[in-house]
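We examine the record.
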Amino acid sequence: MVCALGAAVCFGTASVLQAMAARAAEPGTGSGVDPALLLRAARQWRYVAGLGLDAAGFVLQIVALLHVPIYTVSAALAASLAVTAVVSARLLHVRLSRAEWGAVGVVCAGLAMLGLASGEEGSGTGSFALELGLLVVAGLVLLVGMVAGGLPDRSRALVLGLASGTGFGVVEVAVRLIGDVSLAAFANPALYALLLGGGAAFLLLTSALQRGSVTAATAGMVIGETIGPAVVGVVWLGDRTREGLTWLAVLGFAVAVAGALALARFGEPPRTAPAGAPGPTGA
């Protein structure tokens, strides 16, 4: 659980830095998938720093996924938006209102409930059909990103965010399906689903942060990376709660995700104010 929360801190801070860098990058082709955008954004130190935090967060995420149920890790990663809110208040000089601080508290309360109710990770290893299905989903994530370029700005950001969240969800499930790293892992479709899903998700999220509402993109991402993986963990991989505390786990999951969605706007870089105008002060 400590590793899951550490990953949330890394990802939440990285999202602010990457949103600022992506918005400052030169516009691309307008397509949902723009690989050159990563190269343009990577010229800025904020994006590079964000990549470093993402790498650290990914390591912590893997450790967490190997020890606690997927639904716990998913909720913790969604709660990274609470970290984004706090970091945005610091770096973007956005003043959080009482309601917004309340939403941060709601996220923390949801995670506390999950921590109390979570049992050990399930012992299920998944079938070959599940591994192959995961690879198909990863391919669909990339396909959705390719066709999203023709959508209106807000719809495009939401679709790209949802697709990227699904890709990150593929990574969460794939880590569990791969298990121990060995030569046998190279014959496991889940390994290639992890690489394809993770790469596509990162690219689509970067595109969403540049071309549309970060609020819509991050909200879509939260939905995509939490619900699906949690269901797979419970139904196919045997994730369970502590005896008699299923209701608390469900409540905690719902509360944490709801609080994260309420804070989705804090990946949004501030608009440039006219000369002499005061900076942003909150909602």
Remarks:
- The first helix runs from residue 2 to 24.
- Confidence is low (pLDDT under 50) at residues 270-283.
- The radius of gyration is 18 Å.
